[in-house]
Design goal:
The structure holds two protein chains of two kinds. Chain A has 19 helices and 20 strands. Chain A is an alpha/beta fold. Chain A folds into three domains: about 180 residues, FAD/NAD(P)-binding domain; about 130 residues, no CATH class; about 120 residues, no CATH class. A seven-stranded mixed beta sheet of chain A has the order 7-6-16-17-18-15-19. In chain A, helix 1 packs parallel to helix 11, helix 1 crosses helix 19 and helix 4 crosses helix 10. Chain A starts with 14 loop residues before the first strand and ends with a helix. Chain B is α/β, with parallel strands linked by helices. Chain B contains ten helices and 18 strands. In chain B, helix 6 links the parallel strand 8 and strand 9. In chain B, helix 5 runs parallel beside helix 6. Chain B is globular. Classes of the chains: A alpha/beta, B alpha/beta. The interface between A and B is large, with 105 and 78 residues. Bound molecules: flavin-adenine dinucleotide and FE2/S2 (inorganic) cluster. FE2/S2 (inorganic) cluster binds next to loops of chain B.
C-alpha cells in the first residue's frame, strides 16, 4: 500500500495502555469511567490476552479461564464483580460453577467431590476422612481472620515497619468505602494476620491437627498459585481459599471472551480507543519520565503516562528506550525474580454427551499425589506432569456445545525454561506426545473413554501463549510467589520499586500476582495510580 | 480468635521483617543485564512468522492451466528459512497489484521436509479467468519475483489424536494441492497411516501432479493408493469415470466405516459430496474439509435478502484515526471493497475462519453466510464481523484494524 495512505493513530494522548489483556482492559475501564480517554494498543486481533476463546469446527473453546474468584451472586457481589458492574457499568452474563472441585489422587485412590460453602465443604471432607471437622473448623476461622485483614494491606503506604503497618491497617479500617474493602467487615484480626504473615501454608496448616488425608482434599487449589505449599505464603492462600468457598466461582456465559469484549466495548463507549494489530516496540523515556511510545509500524505517540500490561522483564529488558533509561535497579529487580509456570492446555471437542461419557463434574484436579513438592518437581521435565486441572464446560453451561457433544480442556504447567530447547521441527510431535499422555491420564483416572470420541483437538503450549499474548517465555503465572516475592513483600516494597515516572504495570506480573481476578484488580489500581499522576 | 493457633509473636514478626531485607539482598545481587528476548517468543516467531519474504526460484507448468511456483527465502530481506509447517496448511500471499494490496490463500503443495531440508515451499496456482491474483501471477511472476507471505496457517491437517488410521482424501481440481503435500510427507516420514486418494477431474489433461502421485503410491504401496476419476474421459482413458459419488468412493476406497474423509475442492464439490457422504452415516468427526474460500455468488444463497442483490452501497470506514467513505458492492465481500479502496486490513483465510480481518460493524447490516460464520459467540454479541465473509446489504459504518507492521 502506498505510504501516504497508511492510517495513523494520531499524534498524542493522555494515557497509552500497552496490551488489552485483563490488566490492560481493567486499567482502561478504571480510567474511562473517571473521564480519562485511554488509548489501548493491542498486538493481537481481539481483546482479552488470555481472556479469549477460539472456534474449531462446531466448538468454541475457552482458552484459559477455569473459574473467576471474587465474583459472587447478585446479592453478595465480590470485589471484582463490584468493580466491573457497579463501578464500570460492564454487563456480563455470569454463570456459577456448580461445585468447588472433584479431586482424584491416583496413587492413593482418593476421589472426592467438594462443594462450595464452608459447612458443606467441611461436611464433605468429614465424610471421607472422619475426625476432620473440628480442626478444619478452626482452620477456616483462622483463614477467615487472615483473609479479612489482607485487603487492608493492599492500600497501605509502603513502608516496611511493623508499627507503620499496624497504623495503616487501623487507618484503613476506619476510612475508605472502597469496593475491595471486604476487610471492614472483620477487623479484629490484625494480630493473627501479622502473626501468620511470614508463614508458609505448610507451616500453618500442618500444625493444626488436620488428618493428612483431609489435607490432601484441602490443598488442590494450590495449582492455581503454582508454588508448593512448603513455599507458598499462607496469607495469600487463606485469602484465595475463603474467596472461593464464600463467593463460589463464576465464568462468563460466552467464555472469558465475553468479558474482554464487554469491557472493550464499554471503554470505547466511554470515549477510550482500542487498536488491534498494533504492537508497541518502544516506550520512550527521558530522564526518568515517560515521553511516549513507538509502534511496530514506526509511529510515535506522545504521552506522559503508560500502563504496561506486560511483564516488567520485557518492559525494562526491551521496551524502555533508550536502553540507558532502564535503571540498573529495575533490571536487577526483574532478574532476581523467578518466573512462574508456563501453560500447556489440551482442548477437546467430543462427539458424545458428558452423561454418556461419565464426566459429570465441572472442575477436576487429577494428580498422582497431593505432595505438592513432588508434583512441582514433575513440571521440570519435558514430559507428562503429575497433575492436570481439567474442566468440562458443559457441566457449568450445558448448551456451550451442540447437543450430544462435550468440551473438555486439560491444563498443566511447566517450569519456565523447560521448553526452551524445543526445535520448531520437533514441536508438533512433542505437543502431541504430551497431549496423548494427558488424555490417558484423564481416562485412567475416571475410567472414561474420551480418546475415541475426539472430533476437534487443539493443543496450546508455552509457545502458543507467547504467540497470542506475548507473555514472557510463555508464562501464565507471573513471577513466582516465593516467600520473599509473595504479595505482601511486593506491596510493602511498591514505592521503593517504582523506577520510571508515568509508568505503571498491570496484569499477572504486577503486585497482586497472576490469575484473572488479581490481574483485573491490579489493572484497576494501575489505572487509579495513573489518574492520580495525571492530576485527575 | 487470635488464640486459635499459637505462634511466637516476636519471632514471627522478625521473620516477616527478614523477608524484606532478603528481597533487597536478592535484588542487589542479581545481574543488571537486560533480558532482551525469550526462547518461547523465538519459537513462536519461528513457527508463526508475521511475514515471510520469499522469492520465486522456479516456475513450472503442471497440467493444463496450473503453475507451480517454488518459493525460497529472500535472504536479503531478512527471512532466513521457510517456517516449519504441517502438511495441508496454506500460505496467505500478499501482493501489490497496480497500487492495490490484496491477499490470497494458497495451500502448500510441497512437503514439510522440502521446507526443512530443501529450504523451499511450492504453491500451485490454477489460472482462473478474470481472477485478480491468478491472472497477475501468470503474467508477471517469474524467477526472481519477490513475494510476501504469511506464516503457515490453517487446520486441514491429519491429526493422529483425532483421525482414523485410514484416511480417504477426496480432491477436486486445484484442491489436490494440500494432498500432494500430505502424501509426500507420508512417504518421507514413514508415518503409520493408510491413505487412499480419490482425485476427481473434468478432463484427463487437468490432472495435476500425475507422475508425483503415482510415484508416492509406488514408493509406499502398502500405505498409499491413488485413483484418478474423470468426468469427461478421452479415448485413451482407462480408469474410473464420472463424479466422485458414494458408490465410486465405496468401490475405490472400500468400506467407509472407521475411516476419516478429507475433502478439498471447489465449492460445488463440497455441497455435492456432503449429500453423497450422508449415505455412509459417519460421525461428524470422520469428515473434514478445507475452508471454502471466498464465495463466488453470494446472492445465490437461499438466505440472501433478495432486495439487496445487484445494489451498491456506501461504507464509512474508520481505520486508526482516519475516516473514509468508500463504495461497496452487494456482490463483493466487505474485504474486497476495502482492498479496492486501498485500505488493506489483515486477512489470511478469506473464509471467515481465522479472525485476522475481525472488524466492528458500527452501523448498518451485512449478510454473513451462515456456513462460513466462524465468529465467536461474544464477537457476535458485540457486533464484531469478519469482512472476508460478510456482504453489505445496506450502507454500513465499520471500524477496521490497521495492518500489522
Ligand atoms: C485455504 C485455501 C487454499 C487454497 N489453495 C489454492 C491452491 O493451492 N491453488 C489454487 O489455485 N487456488 C487455491 N485457493 C484459491 C485461491 O486462494 C484463490 O481464490 C484463487 O486463486 C482465485 O483468486 P483470484 O484473485 O485469481 O480470483 P478472485 O479472487 O476470485 O477474483 C475475483 C474478482 O474480484 C475482482 N477483485 C478482487 N479483488 C479486487 C481488488 N482488490 N481490486 C480490484 N478487483 C478485485 C477481480 O477482478 C475478479 O473479478 C485456495 C483457497 C483457500 C481458501
Ligand atoms: S481473513 Fe480469515 S476470517 Fe477473514
Amino acid at each position: 500500500m502506498a505510504e501516504g495512505k497508511k492510517a495513523k493513530l494520531g499524534g498524542a494522548c493522555d494515557v497509552v495502555i500497552i496490551g488489552a489483556g485483563n490488566g490492560g482492559l481493567a486499567a482502561a475501564l478504571a480510567l474511562a469511567v473517571r473521564g480519562a480517554k485511554p488509548l489501548v494498543l493491542e498486538q493481537h486481533n481481539a481483546p482479552g490476552g488470555f481472556a479469549t476463546s477460539f472456534v474449531r469446527g462446531r466448538f468454541e473453546f475457552e482458552a484459559a479461564l477455569h473459574e473467576l474468584s471474587s465474583i459472587g451472586p447478585e446479592n453478595n457481589k465480590g470485589g471484582v464483580r463490584r468493580f466491573l458492574e457497579d463501578e464500570g457499568g460492564v454487563d456480563i452474563d455470569w454463570v456459577p460453577i456448580p461445585e468447588a472441585y472433584r479431586v482424584i489422587l491416583t496413587d492413593s485412590g482418593m476421589d472426592a467431590r467438594l462443594p462450595f460453602g464452608e459447612a458443606p465443604f467441611i461436611d464433605a471432607i468429614e465424610e471421607k476422612v472422619p475426625g476432620s471437622r473440628e480442626p478444619l473448623t478452626r482452620y477456616f476461622a483462622l483463614c477467615r481472620e487472615v483473609s479479612g485483614a489482607l485487603g487492608l494491606l493492599a492500600k497501605t503506604a509502603s513502608n516496611p515497619s511493623p508499627k507503620r503497618i499496624i497504623k495503616d491497617l487501623k487507618k484503613f479500617v476506619a476510612e475508605s468505602a472502597d469496593p475491595f474493602d471486604d476487610a471492614r467487615r472483620n477487623t479484629s484480626n490484625v494480630v493473627t494476620f501479622l502473626r501468620t504473615l511470614p508463614k508458609t501454608v505448610d507451616e500453618v496448616t500442618l500444625k493444626m491437627g488436620i488428618p493428612p488425608k483431609a489435607v490432601d482434599l484441602l490443598y488442590p487449589y494450590w495449582c492455581y498459585l503454582g508454588i508448593p505449599m512448603s513455599r507458598m505464603n499462607f496469607t495469600i492462600w487463606a485469602a484465595m481459599l475463603i474467596d472461593y468457598i464464600d463467593y463460589g466461582a463464576w465464568i462468563p456465559r460466552l467464555r472469558s471472551q465475553e468479558m474482554s469484549y464487554a469491557i472493550e466495548a464499554r471503554v470505547r463507549e466511554l470515549g477510550g480507543r482500542v487498536e488491534y494489530n498494533t504492537r508497541v516496540d518502544r516506550v520512550l523515556v527521558e530522564r526518568g519520565r515517560v515521553k511516549g511510545v513507538v509502534t511496530a509500524s514506526g509511529e510515535t505517540i506522545k504521552t506522559s503516562a503508560v500502563i504496561a500490561n506486560t511483564s516488567p522483564t520485557q518492559l525494562y529488558g526491551s521496551l524502555v528506550s533508550p536502553a540507558s533509561e532502564s535503571p540498573a535497579a529495575a533490571l536487577r529487580n526483574v532478574n532476581s525474580r523467578k518466573l512462574g509456570g508456563a501453560g500447556f492446555v489440551v482442548y477437546l471437542g467430543l462427539d458424545v454427551s458428558p452423561v454418556e461419557l461419565g464426566v459429570n463434574d465441572y472442575g477436576y484436579f487429577i494428580s498422582k499425589t497431593m505432595d505438592t513438592d513432588a508434583v512441582y518437581g514433575s513440571m521440570e521435565k519435558l514430559d507428562l506432569v503429575d497433575m492436570q486441572a481439567t474442566i468440562c464446560l458443559n457441566n457449568a453451561i450445558p448448551d456451550c456445545s451442540p447437543p450430544g457433544t462435550t468440551i473438555i480442556s486439560m491444563t498443566t504447567l511447566y517450569k519456565p525454561g523447560v521448553w526452551d530447547s524445543v526445535k520448531p521441527k520437533e514441536y508438533a510431535a512433542l505437543k502431541n506426545r504430551i497431549a496423548d499422555a494427558m488424555i490417558t491420564q484423564f481416562d485412567d483416572a475416571l475410567g472414561t473413554d474420551i480418546r475415541s470420541r475426539v472430533e476437534e483437538i487443539e493443543v496450546a503450549t508455552p509457545a502458543t501463549f507467547a504467540r497470542y499474548a506475548r507473555s514472557f517465555n510463555g508464562g501464565i503465572y507471573g513471577y513466582e510467589l516465593d516467600p520473599w516475592d509473595s504479595i505482601i513483600p511486593r506491596i510493602l516494597s511498591e514505592k521503593d520499586e517504582s523506577y520510571i515516572k508515568g509508568l505503571e504495570v498491570a496484569g499477572g506480573f504486577a503486585t497482586m500476582g497472576h490469575g484473572f481476578s488479581s490481574s483485573l484488580i491490579s489493572g484497576r489500581s494501575a489505572g487509579l495510580k495513573t489518574l492520580a499522576g495525571l492530576g485527575g | 480468635m487470635s488464640e486459635l493457633i499459637k505462634f511466637d509473636g516476636l519471632k514471627d514478626m522478625a521473620a516477616l521483617l527478614e523477608l524484606l531485607p532478603e528481597r533487597k539482598k536478592r535484588m542487589k545481587q542479581a545481574s543488571a543485564e537486560p533480558q532482551t528476548g525469550d526462547a518461547m517468543a523465538a519459537l513462536a516467531r519461528a513457527l508463526h512468522p508475521d511475514i515471510q519474504r520469499l522469492v520465486i526460484a522456479d516456475v513450472r507448468q503442471e497440467a493444463a492451466g496450473a503453475r507451480v511456483f517454488r518459493l525460497v527465502p529472500d535472504k536479503e530481506s531478512g527471512t532466513a528459512a521457510p517456517a516449519v509447517f504441517r502438511a495441508g496448511q496454506y500460505l496467505s500471499l500478499k501482493i501489490d497489484i497496480s497500487g492495490v494490496r490484496v491477499a490470497r490463500p494458497y495451500s502448500i503443495s510441497s512437503s514439510p521436509a522440502d521446507a526443512a531440508d530443501g529450504g523451499f515451499y511450492e504453491i500451485t496456482i490454477r489460472k482462473k479467468d478474470g481472477g485478480f491474483l491468478s491472472e497477475h501471477a501468470w503474467k508477471e511472476w517469474r524467477v526472481g519475483t519477490r513475494i510476501e507471505a504469511s506464516g503457515p496457517a490453517g487446520f486441514f491437517c491429519v491429526e493422529p489424536l483425532r483421525d482414523a488410521r485410514h484416511i480417504v482424501g477426496l480432491a477436486g481440481g486445484s484442491g489436490i494441492t494440500p494432498f500432494r503435500s500430505m502424501l509426500k510427507d507420508i512417504v518421507e516420514t514413514g508415518a503409520d497411516v493408510k491413505f487412499t486418494l480419490l482425485y476427481g477431474v473434468n478432463r484427463p489433461d487437468e490432472i495435476m501432479f500425475k507422475n508425483d502421485l503415482e510415484s508416492f503410491a509406488a514408493q509406499a504401496p502398502d500405505r498409499i493408493s491413488v485413483h484418478f476419476v474423470c468426468c469427461e474421459p478421452d479415448a485413451a482413458w482407462c480408469g474410473p469415470t464420472g463424479f466422485l459419488t458414494a458408490d465410486s468412493i465405496r468401490k475405490l476406497a472400500g468400506d467407509p466405516a472407521g475411516k476419516s474423509f478429507f475433502i478439498c475442492g471447489p465449492q460445488a464439490m463440497y455441497s455435492f459430496l456432503e449429500t453423497e457422504l450422508k449415505q455412509f452415516d459417519l460421525p461428524k468427526r470422520r469428515i473434514r474439509r478445507e475452508v471454502f474460500g471466498e464465495t463466488a455468488d453470494v446472492s445465490a444463497h437461499p438466505d440472501y435478502p433478495a432486495d439487496a442483490a445487484g445494489k451498491s452501497f456506501s461504507m464509512t470506514v474508520h481505520c486508526g484515526s482516519e475516516t473514509t467513505v468508500i463504495p461497496a458492492k452487494a456482490s463483493e465481500s466487505a474485504l474486497v471493497a476495502l482492498e479496492r479502496a486501498g485500505i488493506a486490513p489483515p486477512s489470511e483465510c478469506r473464509s471467515g475462519e481465522c479472525g485476522f480481518c475481525a472488524s466492528i460493524l458500527m452501523n448498518g447490516k451485512v449478510f454473513v453466510i451462515p456456513e462460513t460464520d466462524r465468529r465467536r459467540l461474544a464477537a457476535k454479541k458485540f457486533d464484531v464481523f469478519h469482512p472476508c465473509s460478510s456482504y453489505p446489504v445496506s450502507d454500513i459504518e465499520v471500524k477496521v484494524p490497521l495492518d500489522k507492521g
